[in-house]
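Section 5.1 Outputs to date
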Amino acid sequence: MKKLKIFLTNIFIATTLTSCQADENPIKVLETAPKEPTEKIMKSEEEWKKILTPEQFRVARKAGTEPAFNAVYKQFAKQGDGDYHCVGCGSKLFHSKTKFDSGSGWPSFYDVASNENVVTKVDNSHGMERTEILCGKCDAHLGHLFTGENYGNPTKNRYCVNGIVLDFVPSDKEKKTDEKTEK
């Protein structure tokens, strides 16, 4: 019952607060990992608008939410082994080994790749208290952290992430598998 309540709450939030533009912007698959920043990234809104799509800007810089169960989520569900990086600055955020299907309609992970690259803050928006997750290097809004849920993962955490703010870098093993499939 608790999972159903969480699921329905997530659907309500997504459908009332978002547009359907995210379907037009799938997760970018990169050949190699981007160079990770060593210091905090500070850019103006205009600079962010030059490097992000309008939907990425809305989610990452304005704390938006993409629709649940969209094309980005479907793409995420099919991706194999690899790392997920911040679309804004390239910081490694999550590894596919910690992703799981929460049934929420958004990419879910039970742990972060680096405590330095994913940070939290209290979010009191929309009449509720939640824990917002942000990129530790560029402050991009990633989504929210839900704790104490029983999905059978080792941390009982669910990092509920907007897929539109992620770039995916397949592992070398995954790249070799894809190359064999293409031949």
